[in-house]
Amino acid sequence: MKTFQPDPQSWQPIQALLASGLPQAMLAVGESGSLLRLHLDALQAATLCFKPTDEGFACEQCRSCKLLAEGSHPDLWVAAPEPGKQIAIDTLRQAMEWIQYTPQVSNSRWLRIDNAEAMTVAAANAILKTLEEPPTRAHVVLHSEQASRLLPTIRSRLQRIPLPEMQMVQSIHWLQQQGVDAENSGTLLRQLGNRPLRALELWEAGWLEQRQQWMRSLLDLSGQGVVATLKLAEQWSKSSDLFLIREMVLNVLADFMRLRQGLLDRIADLDYLEELRLKAPDISAEALQSNLDGWLQLPLTLSQNSNGMMVMEKLLLDWLKLWPRRKTHGIQN
Ligand SMILES: [Zn+2]
Hints:
alpha/beta; 5 strands; DNA binding; DNA-directed DNA polymerase; nucleotidyltransferase; Zinc Finger, Delta Prime, domain 3; 3 domains; binds zinc ion; Rossmann fold; DNA replication
């Protein structure tokens, strides 16, 4: 990935903050997988840098900048949960101890806690004291998707940083700079929301081709029978990408909803618009709602039911009920 340079104009509030003295306990709010992460990286680099530019960017030449580029800066600690897990107290206890020491290379130590809402209550309580009285040469930044999910005692000790917000066009532009073509950039971001980092990651993993297969299987189901449905349920229930399948199905269901309401400008699956348009009119509104509920609640259902295949069978059999007046046997033209 090329080094990310924020837009100088939108960086001005940060530049002013750097000049007047950055707060020690900070909050950055934004979706994970959005360009917020790269903006945070830029702020972190500028703070640790020996000679930041007048515009508030890291010099990319000094020892600190080189260590950051190598991923071995001794004054940086990033704590993040493993996917789907919480941040445990032990992880943060170590970080709280680490941050008390004098910086080794730069002027300050920088601790970042990603997905901070994933801290257990015990973990959150373990950092309270440090947030209240940070060591003199230290910065702590909590990154959160939803600040409202942080404990109020944590939130009240943090100052929110005015990081630039990226518009969709800027995200598309950034994706293209990384080598994704214009059409795919648009498709990815419509599917995933304004999260270009996530889009790039999935694009590199071949997700677009995978999605075509999943879409085909899903959309063809309505013309097929129960046997084909159960077969797909078996396949999907074993997939390690089940959460991505869920996102895709939710997008399709939401698109059906939008088509019925005439909200054409918000369609996520633009590349399947014609097909979805043909299918939308016959859909039962009641079944559409219950399908949406079922897929939304999937993580909860799976946590309560160890038989993933049975859960998926129910979801896909419910999918067939979207078209109550259609025959579900044999192939339809
Ligand atoms: Zn530097």
